[in-house]
Amino acid sequence: MPAVFTVVALVLAELGIFAEERYGVPDSLNFIYSGGETGARTLLGAVAGSAIGVAGTVFSITIAALSYAAGNMGPRLLDNFTRDRGNQVVLGTFIATFAFTLYSLRAVQGGEENPFVPHYNVTGAMLLALACIAALVYYLAHVTASINMTRVITLLRDDLQDSLEKATHQREDSQGKRQPPPENYWQNGEVLRAPRGGYLQLVDVEELIKLADREDVALRLHVKPGDYVFTNSVIVTAIPHLPDGVMDTLTLGRTRLQGQDLEYSVRQLTEVASRALSPGVNDPVTAIDVIDRFGDALCRLHDRSWPDGVHFSGDHLRLVRPVTTFGGLLDSMFHMIRQYGKGSPAVTIRMLEVLRSIAACMDDPARHAELRRHAEMIYADALENTPNDNDRADLKDRYEGVLNIVQRPASQ
């Protein structure tokens, strides 16, 4: 957006100069700047210097403040700052003002022969200077609000919910679902090894299925988006032969990306909670906020199911790929928080309360079993690190609350 603003500013500056050279300035436009060459140079130079000076100072200080805050909130804060449209508009306004005034300044000509003052452009520079003041006031208030921890957590929660919506689908009858072949089915298959290392960022599933269907083969993908692929490690097994072009459907990169990598959004929230529970920060309230967001996201899955990663074309197996399961999602959400927060009764009690609420939202026995597994780990770790009898009693009460739901028959 700053680049677009700059290009538009340069085009407007050229149009202003062209219009004045051809048509001049009508007497009816008495609000247009009417000063001379010296005043125009001074005004344009002051606006240009102020715009770029204020922008450089304000944004450099902001980056320093954000870098410090990102130590507690995680890298999502900096990513949000660069993607935020409001910040882009403000930066674009300052840079466009500098480009507009600098381009206009070169057109100012003095002397007795062919003097020229771009009155339209000088007036435009004055208006842009006022726009910069308004943008600066907005920016200071906007950045202050964007560093708020609750806002960052809410943004991460929204990213997680979007990823969950894309990764799951409305629950359907499980009857008729086809099972993947046994492990020994792939023993004599031809393998594809990774030509380089990196994170698996994207998988073109549809293209993989079309390729397997065209070559009449079955493919097994050993990694899922978000996994780190090591050089020369096996990433695909094919039966009966390995077709060409499989690597073209896989995207490897240096970093993990949001989208197909469901656990990436979870990890960012988990990092916020883990930093909050570190001894140097000691902010259990933030960790509890993250736990609440996890509970909200999981309760939205009450009528949704996970893909099984098995793809057929007619009666022919075409692709088997690993997918994130409900249990794996719980592990990503709660393992690190449990490990870092086991000595904080407020955090462990809230985790058990959230697990109880999640269990009450769902009726799937398999999911209840995963919730019970995590409740048992949380309760066991918390008992060892909670010496106060009243806190231990509260923990037991919340733990039994989870068990009362996960052990209840589905008909109840």
> In the residues, how many domains can be counted?
3
Q: Approximately how much helix is present in the residues?
A: 55-70%
Shape: flat
Beta strand %: 5-15%
How many E-type strands?
Answer: 10
- Total helix count? 13
Terminal CA distance reads 56 Å
Keywords: Membrane, Transmembrane, Transmembrane helix
Transmembrane segments: 43-68, 89-108, 120-141
Organism: Deinococcus cavernae
Biased composition (Basic and acidic residues): 166-176
What brief labels describe this structure?
single chain, 412 residues, alpha+beta, Aldehyde Oxidoreductase, domain 3, 3 domains, three-stranded antiparallel beta sheet, 60% helix, membrane, transmembrane, transmembrane helix, DUF2254 domain-containing protein
Tell me what the structure shows.
The chain is α+β, with helices and mostly antiparallel strands and 412 residues long. The chain has 3 domains: 2-147; 159-167 and 262-301 and 324-412, no CATH class; 185-259, Alpha-Beta Complex (Aldehyde Oxidoreductase, domain 3), CATH 3.90.1170. Helices cover 60% and strands 9% of the residues. It has helices spanning 2-23, 37-73, 76-83, 85-105, 119-146, 149-167, 205-215, 262-276, 284-299, 326-341, 345-361, 365-384, 389-406; strands spanning 169-170, 190-193, 198-203, 218-221, 228-229, 234-239, 250-253, 304-305, 310-313, 316-320. The protein has a 5-stranded mixed sheet, covered by helices on one side. Strand 9 and strand 10 (316-320) form a beta hairpin. Helix 6 (149-167) runs parallel beside helix 9 (284-299), helix 8 packs parallel to helix 10 and helix 9 (284-299) runs parallel beside helix 11. The protein is flat. It starts with a helix and ends in a 6-residue tail after the last helix. The chain crosses the membrane at residues 43-68, 89-108, 120-141. This is DUF2254 domain-containing protein. InterPro entries: DUF2254_membrane (IPR018723). Keywords: Membrane, Transmembrane, Transmembrane helix.
